[in-house]
């Protein structure tokens, strides 16, 4: 089993009224996100080991759906299991759907948990 999560890059698009961070501040935020992500996948790995399941805890960086698909290929996964927020309407259009992108572009079967 591969416990995998992706740390996205800090957004660089700026809208009127948005708080703009310096490059150093954005790097600090990304580092914090990476540490949180690593803690999460490490916990999954530990739980798997408690149940005698071999597992790897891995974090990726960058575009979420693309990173998930590449990791599934790299680690020769038989199945991708991912959660869906279940957004509907305008929030789905505005926020996009990483799950939908993985479902659309992956050559590995995808199980979506809601």
The tally of structural domains comes to 2
Fraction in helix:
40-55%
Average pLDDT figure:
87
Distance between the termini: 20 Å
Number of helices: 4
Q: Strand order, biggest sheet?
A: 1-2
How many E strands?
Answer: 4
Helix vs. strand class: alpha/beta
Strand content: 15-25%
Give the biggest sheet: 2 strands, parallel
Order of helices and strands: EHEHEHHE
Cα shape: globular
Describe this structure in words.
By secondary structure, this protein is α/β, with parallel strands linked by helices. It folds into two domains: 1-62, no CATH class; 76-114, no CATH class. Helix content is 47%, strand content 18%. It has four helices and four strands, in the order βαβαβααβ. The strands form two sheets. The chain has a two-stranded parallel ribbon with strand order 1-2. The chain has a two-stranded parallel sheet with strand order 3-4. α1 (23-50) links the parallel β1 and β2. α2 (64-74) packs across α4 (98-105). The model has no long low-confidence stretch (mean pLDDT 87).
In short:
With 114 residues, the chain is of the alpha/beta class. The chain has helices at 23-50, 64-74, 89-95, 98-105; strands spanning 2-7, 56-61, 80-83, 110-113. It has 2 domains: 1-62, no CATH class; 76-114, no CATH class.
């Amino acid at each position: 089993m591969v416990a995998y999560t992706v740390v996205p890059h800090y957004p660089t698009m700026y809208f009127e009224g948005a708080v703009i961070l310096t490059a150093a501040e954005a790097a600090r935020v990304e580092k914090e996100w990476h540490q949180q992500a690593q803690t999460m996948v490490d916990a999954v790995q530990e739980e798997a080991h408690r149940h005698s399941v071999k597992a790897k805890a891995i974090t990726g960086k960058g575009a979420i759906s693309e990173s998930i698909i590449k990791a599934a290929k790299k680690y020769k996964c038989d199945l991708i299991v991912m959660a869906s927020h279940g957004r509907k309407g305008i929030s789905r259009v505005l926020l996009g759907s990483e799950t939908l992108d993985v479902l659309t572009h992956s050559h590995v079967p995808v199980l979506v948990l809601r």
